[in-house]
Amino acid sequence: MYVMEKAEGENETYITRFILLGFGNHAELQPLLFLLFLVIYLVTMAGNILIMALVVTDRHLHTPMYFFLGNLSCLETSFTSTILPRMLASLLTGDRNISVTGCITQFYFLGLYVGVECYLLALMSYDRYLAICKPLHYTGLMNVRICLQLAAVSWLSGFMIITIVTYLMSQLHFCGPNEINHFLCDFTPVIKLSCSDTSLITLVTFMFSSIYTLPLFLLTLASYICIISTILKIPSTTGRRKAFSTCSSHLTVVTIYYGTLIIVYMLPDTDTLRDLNKVFSLFYTVLTPLVNPLIYSLRNKEVKAALRKAISKYMELIEIEK
Questions:
Q1: With bands split at pLDDT 50, 70 and 90, how would you rate the model's confidence at 5?
Q2: What's the pTM?
Q3: Contact predicate 103/200, CB 8 Å
């Protein structure tokens, strides 16, 4: 059922609400999916908040790499909260309606966090490149002031770009149908429903993707090519293993994130691949924020040491209170 409103001074009527079809009409799966995504949401929030707390409180983690990791964890908590609470409410109540304004707002934050995450991952890979390939210049090139400036640029550039794209989207009219075959308001499914001319927003989005996202991906790729090349030149096996251990966690995160992102946005938009597209969208929007804290905590000695120290202090406080 469409919810329509008549445009002032015009004869055309426009829809005011979309229906997010999500994962289909399988009523028997709704409770299971609700419990699954609820657990994922709680674990994701707890894991990323823990990483942020460790980075802030442990002085051994007051380094550029962990400063950017703290920013990434902050972003992941916001990223997850943009998508999962709305999805959980839909699974619980069965109400899949979302207003056009609400949909565009969700797209705004989704686009912001995807762009900023690309920037942060590029900064973290460049940080590892300097640490491994240019160790003598590392302190001068990655000091506190530069780290703050780079983090600010990542957030501000993301804000500016997505604000322009979202403004153009807000000028579109939607006449029906109003069903979005997705669990979130992504760019392509939304503009496909518009009855306005979408050539300008498509061109602007393509230009921004080419100017902003592509160079960040290439910087990340080039950094790891140089890193792996440098590690392979280290004569001792122990030295190679130690050098690789400093960047293996980040390389794993980058591979998962960019791998799924490329699949989602490079696959042709056909009926056959649409459900597969939704599955891969889950990877970069839901599962990546979930596994990031696990990867960094399980495969990183400094984070594991900081976590053990925090747990021991907590146990000491409990003993004192007794």
A1: low
A2: 0.86
A3: no
